[in-house]
């Protein structure tokens, strides 16, 4: 493949498990883009920055309690080693800002992201103070490590990079891009288990198709995500006044 003009979007990863990368991102859409040089992965083993005989990266929590905590000195050295790497420093942690499509877009628009993957009970708090970064969470649940979270963020970013998705526009109408969940999809066969594809979709009337899809996206969002729906209604109040029947 031809070299891309600008340097490829680069995911720098600090982890205790480098063998987990690229993992699933080595296949399919992301894998092909990785091979083509549209993006790059730069994986570092945190353990290489441990200097004692046993290459210790963790220790018992001050104050007692279960589990182990990742040492500030070891991790700080690992972070400093990639200080000049492209993009913001991102800590994956359940206490971070929830990942959103807006944040993904911001991260994808930059030169890359430097991910710090936690393990055990998490990181020594002094890291966040001395090596400031954006703390990002995948949601209100606990993973066993930051690696799957980093892979997930990367996947969401990579598919937005120019040329990765088949049609560049195909991201625009997706869930969350306009504050709504996506409308339902159908494809062949025309009839399945006694159900037909909605007639409007095969009518050839692009304007009617567009209106049907918007109405469906609104219905699904209203039914499933009152939080998104409230924000959407507030934002589109003026425009939606002409269609008051969709409000309930
Ligand atoms: N004791 C911590 C959980 C540690 S889980 C707590 O109660 O908050 C171990 C590591 O997995 C974390 O350091 C973090 O890097 C990662 N992790 C776990 N859940 C995550 C989530 N929801 N989002 C992002 N990273 C997460």
How would you characterize this protein structure?
This protein has helices at residues 28-36, 72-81, 101-109, 126-130, 147-158, 206-224, 226-235, 237-240; strands at 9-15, 39-45, 58-59, 69-70, 89-98, 112-117, 134-137, 191-192, 195-196. It has two domains: 9-158, SPOUT methyltransferase, trefoil knot domain (Alpha/beta knot); 173-248, Trp Operon Repressor, Chain A (Orthogonal Bundle), CATH 1.10.1270. The chain has eight helices and nine strands. The strands form three sheets. A five-stranded parallel β-sheet has the order 2-1-6-5-7. Strands 3-4 form a two-stranded antiparallel ribbon. It starts with 8 loop residues before the first strand and ends in an 8-residue tail after the last helix. Helix 3 crosses helix 5 (147-158) and helix 6 packs across helix 7 (226-235). The model has no long low-confidence stretch (mean pLDDT 94). With 248 residues, it is an alpha/beta fold. The structure holds S-adenosyl-L-homocysteine. S-adenosyl-L-homocysteine binds next to strand 5. S-adenosyl-L-homocysteine is lined by residues 92-95, 117-119, 121-122, 137-139, 141-143, 145-146, 149.
